[in-house]
Every structure is written in structure tokens, then in C-alpha cells.
Design a protein that fits this description.
Among the domains are: 16-89 and 124-197 and 295-353, 3-Layer(bba) Sandwich (FAD/NAD(P)-binding domain), CATH 3.50.50; 441-554, Glutaredoxin (3-Layer(aba) Sandwich), CATH 3.40.30.10. A hairpin with a 2-residue loop joins β19 (299-300) and β20. It is of the alpha+beta class. The N and C termini lie far apart (55 Å). The strands form 6 sheets. Strands 1, 2, 8, 9, 10, 11, 19 and 20 form an 8-stranded mixed beta sheet that branches. It has a 7-stranded mixed beta sheet with strand order 6-5-14-15-16-13-17, sandwiched between helices. The chain has a 5-stranded mixed beta sheet with strand order 26-25-24-27-28, covered by helices on one side.
Length: 558
């Protein structure tokens, strides 16, 4: 179907329940094996939960869909075992350029700081990401993947959810404690439960043309307003892997989608942009409209919605898949604690609370971007063009340019799970309660690594020290005993110098002080991190009882 990619065909296996007639009983079912559903299954597997993953297809997504994966998403994908594959195959970039007609008026750099493990953005066709995630999931015996298994009905009881599943061999029934719906923007599960999404559908159409060509274009994001090759409209260019370039042409609401997709109408647009001498081949063509909408809440009894099933945004800013991966990251540890009886069901309310906050930020930015890109009145267009005219020479004009505010991690600063700073404790920088943790290079036992990977997927307490080798024995003993009511808290000492501690407290050497600077840390500073690597609390001095109290608050146990 594509010139540069061969679609895998995953094996369908006849479910044994069809022959036995018995109802399958499992603790967790994930429906939808797109990037977010696969990520949710992998996250739960890392929480030592067995997962059944159902998908009605037997391959990865068809055609051109998600393209850009931001630094935060890449850090999450590292924990799912596919970060290296995505970064190796994909096209890394940090610079974006915006043009008005023929002139560049604005540019940005996503990672101005050194010492980050992952780049600001990686471009990779979604089907590659799904293939890597599916392979990672298939390699884990705790995850059972059932391809060509279509959910046709959902019934929710007081404590369980019952699914009827259709296959080529017949129907069978599943009863599960928890259902995670990752079945996309049109979500059949959402429809079966009579749930709605609310928001705005934008009255515009865009043409996606994936083009295979050899070009010397740098690995950057280029966006044009009113270019001479597509006057009065906008164009976006992204480089992908395999010499594929994605070009988005704004068409306007009156465009006929079927006519716009025909090669005789697509090819002249591309030649006007690239020039007649540039050789290229069409890889994929489609026309889309988009919407900015979300559900009123993301948890409904024992059904939990993630990704596009819960919220949809415009593609400008790459906020769709990036946000969905953060949904999975936020949900997994909370569901694990609830299922283990270590946290009340209210912890899942915090999943909805926090991810709705993040979704609303994405919706706001996507709506603003779309309104700027596609002004719907003469006054709006005049304002937009005036801003672009000023941007080249004036900083205030550049601040108003909006060709898609790119995906950034959610700062959950208003979360009910945060412990506020103690009176008298003052910190500089962005590592506030609710912030996603910053990465930094560290050394453990002489081996270089990264702080994100050392923290892992559990509660962790970072204790900053000048010299770990001289920490008092009572401090070490207290650091080794931070777990609360069965909830593990892993201590990590961040030391300016090397040192090996007695007992089981690891030391991470921060010889250049990068971690200390990013966390505005002094000797004795402590940070509590959640399993999704958001800051839960911080203190200028270590008090084990305060750490345990913050764990209780972060798990809704107070």
C-alpha cells in the first residue's frame, strides 16, 4: 500500500472461549491497539498487572496520522522499551521556522539547554511507533494481545464490566474489573455507554500529502502563511523518516474532499511548492477536518477513557498522541494502587481531574492556533497579517505568532495530590509540585546514565548531598525506611561527589551539578516524585514523616 513501508500482519488466534462457551474473567481489558492503548497495556504490565488487549484490526494504523513526538513522550516511551527505536528511526529536530509570504518572520528552538537525553521532537510515522510498541507488548507474557477481536457491546455493573466480542469464529464474553477505552476519536465504547464529547468542530479542510523525495531540507518544522505557491492559505512541512515529507495544505471549508485528493489536483500544488525540477512520488493523500472536544470526565465507574477516546485536538502543535501517552502514564500507577487495595477509588477521580486540566490546556492552545491559522473574518485576517508583518523586526509581534503552540508536558500545579511547600521553604526554577521532573546526566557506580531512567516507575525520594560518603547513619536509616502502608518509596542520593553507601540506598553522582541546578537543590534538599515522574512535594530539609505524609496525600489516603 505504501512505497516505503510494509504493513505487518498480526496473527489472529481463535479464542478458546468460543469452543468452551465459558465467560473469560480478567482483571483489566484495554480496547484499542493504537499508540495510547499499547502504551496503557505496557504501563500496566510494568505495574505487574496482567492485561488483555483487544483490537478489531490485525495491523498498525493505515496512512499518515501522528508525526511528532515531544521530549516528554520520548521519556515515557523509554520506560515502555521503545524510546531508542523511535529516536534511532525517527528524525530529530529542535528548530521551527515560520514564514509570511516569502520571508522568515519567526523561529524557535525547543531545547536551548544542553544535557538532555532526548531531543525536543522526533518525527516518525505513527505506524512505526505502533509496530515498536506492539513488538514490546508481544514480548511480555503478562500482556495477551488478541487481534481481530471486535467489542460489540459493553454493559457496566456495580463492580465489573461485561464485554461481548465478535471474531471470525463467533462471539464470546469477557467479564473484567476494569476497562480502559483507547478506541479512538469515534470511540464505539463511548457510544455504547451513551457518553458524549463536547467542544468545537472547525469549519476548514486540510490536505495531507506524504511525499517521497530526496531533498536537502534541514530537519526543521517549516510553516508558511500566505506563501506565493499557495496564496491566501497556510502550508506546513515536516520531514519524516525514509525520505518522506509530510505537507499539509489548507484548503478552506468549501473544498470538495474527494476532488482535492485526486492526483491531478494534488500534484500541481506540490509542484508549485517544490518546483517542476524536483522529483517526488506521492506516498499518501487524505483530506481532514478537525475538532477540539473532550468528555466531561474521563472515568465512568469501572470504565476509563484515554487518548482520543477522551479528548481530541487539532493536529497543529502535535498535542494528540503526546497527550494520550501522558494519559497512560498518569493512569497506570493509580489503577495499580486501587486494584491492590492501597488507595481508594478516589485516586482514579484524580486521573480525570489531572488529565482534564491537561486536556483543557491543549484545547485552549489548539483553538488559539487554529483561529490564528484559519481566521474566519476579515478583521481577524487583518490582525493576523499585521502580527506577521511586525514579527520579523519586533519581539512583541513574534510573541503573538501562533502556527501551532507545540506540545509541552502538563504541569499539574493545581492537583489535589500535591503537597504545598512548607512555610519558609523557597525554591527557584520550574520543579514545583505538580511539575514533570527534569532529566539530568548522572553517574552510578562509574557508569553514566540519566536521572529519568534511574528514578523508574515508582515513588522516589531524591536526597541532595554534597558528599554522600559522609552522610550520618541515622539519615541513611531513615532514607531506607520511607515506604508507607505497603507503598514503596525508593530513596536516591544525588551527590556532588562519588560515593557508595552502606545498605540499599543508591548514589547518583552529579559531578557537574546539572541536577542540583535544575532542582535548585542545596545539601539536604529532598524531592518526592510520583511513579509518573511528577513532583509530589519538596523540602529544604529531610523529615521522613513529612515524606510519608506526602505519599499518603499523593495516593488519596488522607
Amino acid at each position: 500500500m505504501l512505497k516505503t513501508y510494509n504493513y505487518p500482519k498480526f496473527e489472529y488466534r481463535r479464542p478458546p472461549e468460543i469452543a468452551s462457551g465459558k465467560t473469560l474473567r480478567v482483571p483489566v481489558v484495554v480496547v484499542g491497539a493504537g499508540p495510547v492503548g499499547l502504551a496503557a497495556a505496557l504501563d500496566l504490565q510494568q505495574q505487574d498487572l496482567p492485561v488483555l488487549l483487544l483490537d478489531e484490526d490485525d495491523t498498525v494504523s493505515i496512512g499518515s496520522r501522528g508525526v511528532c513526538y515531544a521530549k516528554r513522550a520520548l521519556e515515557i516511551l523509554d520506560r515502555y522499551g521503545v524510546g531508542d527505536a523511535v529516536c534511532s528511526k525517527g528524525v530529530s529536530w529542535n528548530v521551527g521556522r515560520t514564514f509570511f509570504r516569502e520571508e522568515e518572520v519567526y523561529n524557535f528552538n525547543l531545547v536551548p539547554e544542553p544535557d538532555h537525553h532526548r531531543p525536543g521532537m522526533v518525527n516518525l510515522q505513527q505506524y512505526y511507533l505502533e509496530e515498536y510498541l506492539a513488538a514490546s507488548a508481544a514480548a511480555r507474557p503478562e500482556i495477551e494481545l488478541r487481534w481481530k477481536n471486535k467489542v460489540v457491546s459493553v454493559a457496566q455493573g456495580d463492580r465489573t464490566v461485561t464485554l461481548k466480542v465478535e471474531t471470525e469464529d463467533g462471539f464470546y464474553t469477557i467479564e473484567t474489573d476494569w476497562l480502559i477505552a483507547a478506541d479512538g476519536a469515534r470511540s464505539p465504547i463511548r457510544r455504547m455507554l451513551g457518553l458524549e464529547v463536547e467542544g468545537k468542530i472547525f469549519m476548514d479542510r486540510f490536505l495531507i500529502a506524504d511525499v517521497v523525495m530526496k531533498a536537502e531540507f534541514p530537519s526543521e518544522r517549516w510553516f508558511w502563511f500566505d506563501p506565493p505557491f499557495h496564496p491566501g492559505q497556510s502550508v506546513l512541512l515536516h520531514r519524516q523518516t525514509d525520505s518522506v515529507y509530510r505537507i499539509d495544505f489548507q484548503l478552506g471549508w468549501d473544498a470538495d474532499p474527494e476532488q482535492a485528493k485526486k492526483p491531478e489536483n494534488v500534484l500541481p500544488r506540490i509542484k508549485a511548492m517544490l518546483g517542476d525540477e524536483r522529483e517526488f512520488e506521492l506516498e499518501w493523500v487524505s483530506v481532514y477536518t478537525f475538532q477540539c472536544r473532550r468528555m466531561g470526565r474521563f472515568n465512568h465507574g469501572n470504565v476509563l477513557f484515554v487518548g482520543d477516546a477522551a479528548h481530541q485536538v487539532s493536529p497543529f502543535g502535535a498535542r494528540g498522541a503526546n497527550s494520550g501517552l501522558q494519559d497512560a502514564d498518569n493512569l497506570g500507577w493509580k489503577l495499580k494502587l486501587v486494584m491492590a487495595g492501597l488507595a481508594p477509588a478516589a485516586l482514579l477521580d484524580s486521573y480525570s481531574e489531572e488529565r482534564i486540566c491537561a486536556a483543557d490546556e491543549n484545547l485552549l492552545n489548539s483553538t488559539r492556533s487554529t483561529d490564528f491559522i484559519t481566521p474566519k473574518s476579515k478583521v481577524s485576517r487583518t490582525f493576523r497579517n499585521a502580527v506577521l508583518g511586525l514579527a520579523k523586526d519586533h519581539a512583541f509581534g513574534r510573541a503573538l505568532v501562533n502556527s501551532g503552540r507545540l506540545s509541552v508536558p502538563a504541569f499539574l500545579t493545581t492537583s489535589s495530590l500535591n503537597t504545598p511547600d512548607c512555610a519558609g521553604d523557597t525554591f527557584a526554577g520550574r520543579m514545583v509540585p505538580g511539575a514533570p521532573m527534569d532529566d539530568a546526566p548522572v553517574v552510578e557506580n562509574g557508569e553514566a546514565g540519566w536521572l529519568h531512567n534511574k528514578v523508574g516507575h515508582r515513588f522516589a525520594a531524591l536526597y541532595f548531598a554534597q558528599d554522600a560518603a559522609v552522610l550520618p547513619a541515622p539519615t541513611l536509616a531513615a532514607l531506607s525506611n520511607l515506604s508507607w502502608q505497603g507503598i514503596e518509596v525508593r530513596p536516591l542520593v544525588i551527590s556532588a561527589g562519588p560515593g557508595l553507601l552502606a545498605g540499599d540506598v543508591p548514589v547518583l553522582e552529579d559531578a557537574r551539578g546539572v541536577a542540583a541546578r535544575r532542582y535548585d537543590a542545596q545539601p539536604g534538599t529532598v524531592y518526592l516524585l510520583r511513579p509518573d515522574q511528577h513532583v509530589a512535594a519538596r523540602w529544604r530539609s529531610f523529615d521522613a514523616d513529612k515524606v510519608r505524609a506526602a505519599v499518603a496525600k499523593a495516593t488519596c489516603n488522607v
